[in-house]
Records
---
Amino acid sequence: MKKPFLILYLFIPLLFSCNNQGKRSPEQYRKDSIQVAHYINQGDSIYKIKNSYNNFAKSLELYDSAWQVASGANDTLLLARAVFAKGRAYDAINNNPQMTIDFYSEAARLYATIPREQKKALYIKHLVAHSYDKVMDSAHCIQILSELYNEILTKPDSIKKELSFTVEMAVISTTVKNYTLADSILKFLTRREWIKNDSTEYDYLNHYIIVKARTDVRYNHNFQSPYLDSLETIFAKSPNLNDSVYYSNELWELNRVTGNKAKEAYYLHLNNKVYNKFNTPETVREVRDKLAKMEIATVEAKRLAELEKAEIRKRFIYILAGLVVVISLLAIFLVRRNKEIRRKRNEVVDINQQLYQKNLQNELLNKEIHHRVKNNLQMIMSLVYMQEKNTDTEEVKENMQNIRLRIESIAKLHQQLMEQTDVVDLRKYIQYLVSNASNLMADSRKVITHLNVESIRVPQKISFPLGLIINEWVTNSIKYAVPADGSLEISVSIINNNGIQVRYRDNGRKQSEANGNKSLGLEIVHILIEQLEGKLETGPDNKYAYNLTIPLIHG
C-alpha cells in the first residue's frame, strides 16, 4: 500500500502547480502595470496629433496591446483604462459606432466598481450618451444625459467644479435639439468662470461657445449672435485638421440657418477642402484594413487564451487520471472517453472558426458596398447642389432643389437601412422617416405629425419603396398644403389587415390641379406602387388624401 501513496504524494505538488497557473505574482503585476501605462501613453501621444485617421488607427493598435496585457493581468483598474482607451480611438475613427458604445459602456461599468473612480465613471457615461447621439438614437442619448444631470445636480459646487465635462453634456443636448436641457446644464451644473480649455481632454471653453451659438441661432433665432464671431475666431486658430473639420462644419450649418449665403458657401468650401485633406481615400482604406486586421487579431487572441485555459485543464485532467490509474482501472475508460469528447469538440471548434472567417469576410464586403453607395449619393447630392447654386432660373433652381432633397432623403433612408437587419420594424422606420422629412423640409414652418403605425415586421424590399412613397407625400404636403390655421398637420396610419393598409391625410385646403398630374414626384409614387403591386385610392373631396393597400405576398 505504500507505493500508491508515494505516487499520490508525488502528484499532489504537480496538481497544485497546475491549478495556480494564471495567477500573477506581485512582481509580474508591477511589470504588467508599467507595460499597460507605456502602451496607453504612447497611444495618447499619437492620438493628440489628430491630423488624419492614421493617427487614430495607430493609437488604437497601442491601446489594443495595452488591453491584451490588462486582460492577462486580470486587474479591474488596468482593464478599465485599456477598455476606455480603445473606446476613445473607435469614437475618433467613427467607423463602428456600436463598438464605441460597447467599449464606453464596459469602461463606465468597470470604473464604477472601483473606489475613488466614481468621477471617471460619470465622465465616461456622458461619452456613452455622445455615442448614442452619433447613431441617431436620441431616446437613449437623452435618457443617459437626464440621469447624469439628476445625479450631478445634488452634488456640492466643489465637486461640480471638477466635472468639466458638463459642458460636453450641453453640446450633446443641443446636437439632439434638446435646448432646454442644455440651458439647464449650463445654468445649474457649471459656471462660466469654471470653464477652461483642456489640451488633455476637450476644448471646453470653445464648446461652451458652440452651445451658446447653437442656442442663439437655432432656438432663439438670434441671427446676429456675438457667439458666431467668437466661433469664427476659434476656427481660425484650429491647431489641427480634425478641429478644423469640426468648427468649419459648425459654421457652415449655423450660417445656413441664418441665411447668410456668402458665409454658408465659404465655410462649406473650407469644410470640404479640409475634410478631403484629412480623410483621403488611401487613408480610409488603410484605416479600414487595420481595423479589420485588429478585430481578427482580437478574436484570435481570445481564442488562444481559451486554448491556453483548455491546455491547463487538460494537464489537470491527465494528472488526476494518473492518480486514478493507481487506484483503479476505471480511470483508463474515463481518459479514453474524455479524449474522444475533446476530439469531437476540436472538430466543432475548427468548423465554427471556418464559418466565422467566412462570415467576417462577407460582413467586410457588405460594409464596403454600403460605404461606396453612401459616398456616391453624397457626391451626386454635392453636384446637384453646385448646379443649383450656379443657375439663375428659378424654375431650374427649384427643380434642382427638389432633386437634391430627394437624394438626401434616399441617403437618410439608406443610412437607416444599413443599421437594420433584412427585416424592418415598420413602426420605428416610419417614425424616423416622417420626423426626418419634416425636419428636412419644414425649415421655419410648424409641422405637427400624427402617427398611428402598428409594429409590423416587413422585408426591406417592401419597407424601402414604401418609405420613398410616404416621404414624397410628406414633401408635397409641406411644399403645397395651405392649412386654414397656419399649422400643418400630417396624419399617417398603417395597420395590418390582410395586407398593409396605409392612410395618409393633411389638413390643407383642396390643392389646385397645377400641383397634380405632371408632378415628377407623383409619377415616382405610381411607379413604386406598381413595384409593390399595391392599389391606390384618393379621397372623394381631395385627391391628395391617399388610401394605399399593399399585399404581403412578398413576405
---
Amino acid sequence: MHPVLNALHYKLIVSCQAAPDDPMEDTETLRRVARSAVMGGASGLRLNSPEHVRAVRLDTSLPIIAIQKSYEGGQLRITPDFVAAKALANAGATIIALDCTDRLHPYGEPWRDIVRRIHEELGLLVMADIATLREGVLAAEGGADIVAPTLHGYTDETKGTFGFHPELVSALARETGKPVIAEGNVSTPALARIALEAGAWCVVVGSAITRPGSITATFVEAIRSLDPSSTSSHRHVIGIDIGGTSIKSAVVGVDGTVQLQHDTPTTAAQGRESIATALTAALQHTLAAAETNNIPLHGVGIASAGAIDSKNGTVFAATDNLPGWAGFDIRQYLRTITDLPVFVENDAHAAALAELRFGAGRGFSNLIALTIGTGIGGGVIVDGHLLRGSHGFAGTIGHQTIRFDGKPCNCGRRGCLEAYVSTAALIEEYRLLDPTLSTDQPEPALAFEIARRSIAGDRNAVQAYRQLAAYLAEGVANLSNLFDPEIIVLSGGLIEGQSTFLSDVQQNAQSLLHFGSKRPPRLIPAAAGRYAGVQGAAASVFDQITT
C-alpha cells in the first residue's frame, strides 16, 4: 500500500472549500480554515485550485487531495483536463481527484487519459469521484488508485438519492479492490464512524466543518419562528419561480407587492447543473438588488415544477421539462449561497397560495386553483391551508381519470383529465373539425392560433373550446365532490380571452353534480398575474416564518 494511503487509513480529511461568491471564497481565509482543521486533528485536506493548494502547502506537509472546479459551458466538472491536474501538482498536491462518471462532458478530456498522464508524467495518486458502483468499478479498472462516491446524487442516474449511503461504500470497497474514501453528505461524527464501519478507508467532511454560513443557517432556521420581529408588517422575502424557459425572481412584500423583478434564462435542456447555475444567478442578482436598495430580507421562497418535498426542500420527482431535476436538494444547494431560510414549493401549489393571499382567493378559506396549459397544474386550499401531501403530490388534478381506458396520458395511465384538457388536446379537437390545420408549427403556436380564431368567432375553434369545457367540467365536478370548495380559480394562457369558457365549464359541472342547483360550482379567473409563482413562493415563506 502506498505510504500516503497508509497515513490516511481510518483518518479524517477536511475539505476546505467555499461556494462561488461566498465571503469565505478567499485564499487567505481558507488557508486559516485549513490551519484550524489541522490543529483540530485532521490528517489530510481537500482543496480547490492551485492557488489554495499553494497557500496551504506553506503551512503543512499533510496529504492534500486537490481538485480544479471548471464551470465551462455552464456545467461543473472536477479537474477537466491534464493541464489542470499538472497545475495542481506543481502547487503541491499529493492526490489529484477528478470526475470519473459516465456523464457526457463536451469540455475537457476523457478521464482515462487524464488518469494515465497523472501517473506517467506527475507520479501522483488519482482519486476517482464517481456516482455509482459500476462507475467505481470502471474507475478502478481504468487505473484510479482511490474511489469516492462524491458525486452520488448529482448525476441523472442517481437523481433522487441524496444523503450518505453506507451500503454504496461497502459495495465499492468489496467490488473495486481499491481504498474507498467516504465523501459526500457525511454531516455528523456518527455518520463518519458508520462510514468507516461500512468499509471506508478514510472519511472526507466538508460543509459540516468548514462552511459557517451553512452551519449557521441550520440554527437560524430552527429558531426563526420564535423571533417576534419576524411578524413585522414591513417584512420582505425573495420569491423565485423556476420555469423551463426562464427563472423569475423578485423581492416580495408581506402584502404581495412585487419589486426588483428579474428574469434569468433557464437553459433547462442542458440539465440539472445548468438549471442550478441559472438559479444561483437569479438568487445572487436579487440578493444584490435588495442590498443596493437597503431592503432587509427574511427568507427565500422557491417555486419549482415537479413533486416537491417541501419539508426537506427537495425535488421528489420531476418531468422532462426540467431534465435531471428529480432528486435535487434545492434547500441544501442554496445554503451555499445565502444564510437566509429557504422554503420550496411546487409551482402549482405556489400559484394557489398566490391567489389565496394576494389574488382572486382573498377572503376565502376553501379554494382550488387550476392552471391550464401543456398540462393541468393544481393546488388545493382547505381551511386556509395548502394541501401538500406526504410526497408533494397533493393537488395533482390533471391525473384524475375521467374516462376508463381512455386516451393515453404522459403519466403512463389512460383517461386522465390532462389528456383531454391541454394544449395538445385543444389542437386534437380542432383537427377533428378542420383537418387542414397546419402541422408545421410547434404546439404552442398552433394553440395560440386556435385561441385567436375562437376569439374571432371561428365556428370550429369555438366548438373545440366547448368540448374542452365539457371535459374540464367532469374534473371540476369530481373536485367539487371531493373538496366542496367555495371557489375554483382558473388561469393559463390557453383560456385567456375565451369569454364563455368559464361559464360553459360551470354550467356543465353543475349539471353533473348531485344537488348541483343548490351548490353550483363558482369558477373565477385568476388575478395574481405573471408573477403568481414568485408571489406564491414568497407566501410560503411568510406562512412558515410566522407559525
---
Amino acid sequence: MADKITSIDPDLDRLSVDTARVLSADAVERANSGHPGLPMALAPLAFVLFADVMKHDPSAPDWADRDRFVLSPGHGSMLLYSALHLSGYDLPLSELENFRQWGSRTPGHPEFDPAHPTPGVETTTGPLGQGFANGVGMAVAERWLRGRFGSEVQDHRTWGIVSDGDLMEGIAAEAASLAGHLGLGRLVYCWDDNSISLDGPTSMSFDGEDVVKRFDAYGWQTLSVDTVDDLDELRSALAEGAAEEERPTLIRVKSVIGWPAPNKQNTSGVHGAPLGSDELRAVKEALGFNPDESFVIPEGVPERWSAVERGSAARAEWEARFAEFLSADSDTADLWRAAWQGKALPGLAAALPTWSTADGAVATRAAGGKALAAVADHLPTMLGGSADLASSVKATVPGGGDFTKSENGRNIHFGVREHAMGAMVNGIALHGGIVRPFGSTFLQFADYMRSAIRLSALMRLNTTWVFSHDSIALGEDGPTHQPVEHIATLRAIPGLTVIRPSDANETAEAWRVISEELDGPAVLILSRQDLLVLDRDVLGPVSGLGGGAYTLACDGNPSAVIIATGSEVELALQAREKLAASGTEVRVVAMPSWELFDRRPEAERNEVLPPGLPAVSVEAGISMGWERFAQAHVSVERFGASAPAEVLMEKFGITADAVVDRVNGLLSD
C-alpha cells in the first residue's frame, strides 16, 4: 500500500467523480429501474479506491494477488459498473447503456457468474449483509494463503463498501465479531453513513446504537471521514486503514444520498427509483454537463480513472517474484497450481477409508470425519469448520491445526454464527486458492444458512456444506432439533447437489465424488445414529452413488420398487425380505442424490427405475418432491417429538413393516 496520495489536478479529479455520478444516473434512467442514490453519493469514494488506492489490473481481472473489492449494498450496482468501465475493465459503455437488460453484463445487482462473467465483480451481492461476510471470508483466505505460501505470492487486501442496511443485518454483526476476534488486519470497510433507508430515515429503526462504538467493541480500528467529497480526507483514511495489520478497519464515511439532485437528495426517493427526466437534467446542469446528452465521458477522465498502467506494473513486479517462487520449490509450485485450478491431488480414491460388515454399525457422521481426513490430504488447501459443533458433526481436518489470530491452521472455529459461517465460506471459495472450503452444523440449522447456500448455488461455487443429525432419529433433543422439511427445501435450490448416503462406504464415496467430479456446491447429509455397513458382496457396488441412484438388490421378477435414502435404506432392505417371505418380489434402489440422478441420460435412469413399475419412497422427512419417482411414500409429515430414536421411528411409522404395508397397498390398488 502506497503512502497517502494527493491529487495533482483537483479539477480533473472532480470532473472524474462527477462523470461517474452522471453515468450512473443515466444508466438507471435508461433502464427505468434501479438505485441512483448510492452511486451518485459515493462516486468520490469509488474514484479514490479504483483510481488511486487499490492494487488491481483491469487487463488481468483474475490476477491472483489483486486486491478484492466487495460492494455489499448490491442495489448500488451502477457505482461498481461505472468504476469498472472508467478504470479500464472490459466492460464497454454499451453494457452500461444496457443496465438491467436481458443478456447484459450489468444486472440489477452485481453477479459473480463464471459462465457469463462481469470482469471485476468478485461476488454476487443483493441480500444485505452477505457481501459483508463474503469479504471477511476473502480476508481469511488471503491470510491463510500468505501464511502457507509466503508474502511474495499472496500480499493483498480486501476492501468493501457497506451500507446502513448491511449493518442492520445480524449476519454482519456475526461476521464483524469473528473478524475482530481473528484480527483480520487486511480488511478495510467503508460504511456509507447516509441515514436513509428504503422506507425513509434510518432514525425510524436504527438510531438506538453507536455503530462506531460497536465496532470498537468487536476489536476493529474505527476511523471517520466527515464528508465523502473530501478526496484528500478519504485518501488519508484509506491509507491509515491499510496500514493497520492487527485489526480490521471500519471507516465511517458521511454522505448525502443522491447528491446533487436538488429535490430528491437526502430522501428515500433516490433509494430505489430513477431520478426522472427533470431531476436528472437538474443534476447535469449543477455538475456542468449538457442536460441533453447521455452517457458522456469528458476528455481526460478515462486516463485519470485508469488503473491499467499502475496495475500492470504491480502485476509485473509480482510475476517476477512469482517466477522465483515457482523455480525455488517445485513441490510447492505444483501445490499452488493445483490449488488455483481447484483440483485434488492424485490418489484420493485409493486413500479413502473403507468399512466391512465386520465393523458393525457406523454413524455416517463418524464415517464422514474419517473420509474428510483423507480428502484433506489430497486437497491440502482445504479450509473449513463448524458453528461450534465440530465434536458432533465430526467435520474437522485432523492434525490441520486451528485458524486463529496467531495460528495458520486449517480448522476455523466459527462459533455459534451459522449465518456468518455460510457467507464466509462462500467468500473463501470466491477468493481462489482454497479448494472445497466447507462449513458444518446440524441439518436443522441449515435454515440459518439458507441465503448463503442459495448464493453458493447461484454463483456455482465449489463449497461443501456438511450437515449431521439428519432426521427425527437424533432422538431426545426433540422437534426443535429434528429436521423434517429441510432435505426437501435444500433439494429445491437449483444447482445445489444434495447427497444423503446410506452407510459408511457411501459417505466416503460421496466425499470422493464431491472432491473429484462435482462442479458446484454440495450438501452432505449425515446421521447421528449408527447405520449398518451394507454388504457389497451381495448388494450393488458403492460406486453407484456417483450416478445418484442405483440398484442395491433386485428379485427375479419385481412387481414394485422401494426407493430409499440414508438410514432408511436399511428399512427398505428389511422390507424386501419380509415381502419375499410372502411371495412379493421387489427392487430396492438407493437414491442418495436426486441431482446426480437427474444428470444421467434417460435410458440409464430407466434402467434404475423402470417405467411402469410402481414405487414407494422411504425417507424420514416430508415426502414433497418424491412424487416424481414414487406413487406412495413412507415419510414424516409433522414435527418430531422428544424420545429415544428407536421409539420415535416406531411412533412415526418409519419401519420396515410400514414399507411393506405401502408396497402391498400400492399393488392392491
